[in-house]
Specification:
Layout lengths: L11 E5 L4 H12 L3 E6 L2 H10 L8 E5 L5 H8 L6 E6 L14 H24 L3 E10 L13 H21 L5 E7 L5 H4 L5 H11 L8 H12 L10 E4 L7
Helix pairs in contact: 1-8, 4-5
């Protein structure tokens, strides 16, 4: 039987932000592709919901660790969540806040940078330093087209946090290439997630935006981002590093 290069069988994958949305979809997709999956998130009941959704491939395991990546103690707990080193990491944890720039005080910027940028980078650094990531692993950051390609009013702080993530990932890709570890970003457009639903627009406004600004006339679905993560984690992407994979329904073609 021919080898499936997109399979994650035999790989151990950590997924952050797995309580809902893109993180939950990534966890499920990785398990469906054959991986052992370790999930983490701040919301214990919702993380348990994700845990119960995970298929258990033959020979694979699943584990969960409730963790707030802004809490030092939780950082330490997460470092020991897997019995074996990771073959891949998908950083999905993130927050969004619309705020016109003149009314975005330092606290707003600091919060977005802390959650969206500094936490995933620091977690990666610690995992690498502790030898908890195998040589040849794949690290995937879920960024955004905001900041790197296109943005909108009220997104200054959010765009900065996501653009900074992409810049850091490129430098990490260079530094980690010697050990065959790959680092890539996925940059989605608007995706139907709880975070996107909470930005303060009405359903009518969201529908109008999707119809007007997206050539495919809809927002993305979490699983459509998850399938891209599976590709970047798999051997099919063995020669792919330092990239920004844009998945936006054609938004940036406008």
């Amino acid at each position: 039987m021919a080898k499936n290069p997109f399979s994650l069988e035999g790989k151990v994958i950590l997924v952050t932000g797995a309580s809902s949305g893109i993180g939950r979809a990534c966890a499920v997709a990785c398990a469906e592709a054959g991986a052992s999956v370790v999930i983490t998130g701040r919301d214990e009941p919702r993380l348990e919901e994700t845990f119960q959704m995970l298929p258990r491939p033959l020979g694979a395991f699943t584990a969960k660790c409730v963790a707030d990546l802004s809490d030092e103690k939780d950082f330490e707990n997460l470092l020991g969540a897997s019995p074996t080193p990771y073959d891949g990491i998908v950083h999905c944890a993130g927050i969004s806040k619309l705020r016109p720039f003149p009314f975005a005080p330092p606290q707003v910027l600091e919060k977005l940078l802390s959650v969206n940028t500094l936490a995933p980078i620091e977690l990666t650094r610690r995992l690498l330093k502790n030898g908890t990531v195998r040589d040849g692993a794949s690290i995937v950051f879920v960024s955004s087209v905001a900041g790197t390609r296109i943005t909108s009013v009220g997104q200054t702080a959010y765009a900065l946090s996501k653009a900074a993530l992409c810049g850091a990932a490129k430098a990490m890709a260079l530094e980690l290439a010697y050990q065959k570890t790959r680092v890539n970003c996925i940059c989605p457009g608007a995706v139907e997630t709880p975070i996107h639903a909470s930005i303060g627009l009405s359903e009518a406004q969201l529908n109008e935006d999707a119809q007007k600004n997206y050539p495919l006339r809809r927002y993305g679905k979490p699983e459509e981002i998850a399938y891209a993560a599976v590709y970047l984690l798999s051997d099919a992407a063995a020669w792919t590093t330092g990239t920004e994979l844009v998945i936006d329904g054609g938004l940036t073609l406008r």
